[in-house]
Amino acid sequence: xxLNNDEIRRYSRHLILPExxxxxxxxxxxxxxxxxxxxxxxxxxxxxxxxxxxxKIGIVDFDTVDFSNLQRQxxxxxxxxxRSKAESAKESINEINPNVEVVIHxxxxxxxxxxxxxxxxxxxxxxxxxxPTRYLTNDACVLLKKPNVYGSIFRxxxxxxxxxxxxxxxxxxxxxxxxxxxxxxxSCAEGGVLGVxxxxxxxxxxxxxxxxxxxxxxxxxxxxxxxxxxDMKFRELKLRRxxxxxxxxxxxxxxxxxxxxxFCGINLEPVAVGANPDEVDVxxxxxxxxxxxxxxxxxxxxDPDEAQIAHIKGVPQIPLGSLPQRFTExxxxxxxxxxxxxxxxxxxxxxxxxxxxxxxxxxxxxGIEAWSDQIDHNIAKY
Length: 382
Hints:
Structural class: alpha/beta
Largest sheet: 8 strands, mixed
Number of domains: 2
Distance between the termini: 48 Å
Order of helices and strands: HHHEHEHEHEHEEHHHEEHEHEHHEHEH
């Protein structure tokens, strides 16, 4: 391929780098990258790859833009709220560099479609935020011999690596052979994330992609880079390929994609709304608060900082983390409704109280988010 005069002007700061030059820029422009996720990590990755001139960028994302995304997902703007993230990302990329071919996959990556989605691309970058998709992406990349540029973020900390057994390094399963128990690691929606953190980690991932495309430098293959934004410190761990790895080891037992929801211990939600006997809806919670004579106690198990954002009047707090020390404040023979932000932590609190002998405990389905949607729109959503 040849660069035209407009492209030479656009990429001039690359072209004068001896490590890149005309030949290197042509490699970049001839490369294709599949970006799984157009969120916090995917935003800086896609934007910088587009600016650098990656020839083809695929975007896999089935979600829509929410107001809470705008604090960190800089590829989207306020006017994009409610739009498809994939469509919004494509528009932003085209504005940055119209020479880039953008292919949107407005779908959830799954064991059924992962191989077909990944196969046409040279490099895959993981910008996801859940364990089933991370293991799925890893396994598909190993089976297809594609480099998997990994990153993850939480609160003030992030990590990045490149998993590529076909290039001599380990895979994600070598680092994390088993997923954590369901609910053990909070999501960003539950635990929060500093808005600039995905920008830092995403830029590291984008840098690794460009180095892979150029065939230059020392990549993160065999290394895990850890970053702490509060301390502004980087650490590095050496990673080795596990000869017993069931995927990339000497005697692999995983030769095709599996059910990753089951592997990660995640139960699919029941089809019928309200089918879970351990749950009540927010209307039942309101009835309990409006009628104290019913003797139903409502407890908020969110963290204190969250109560400053949004709080339902008259509902006392016992944070989930404090429950093992404070459950004796509750009557095990009374009916208790537990609520949190979305219903996940309240289910954990329910399971703990059941273990302590509480028989009449219910989790409020949808938590304070459902309360805001269905009962009181003045309660802020976050």
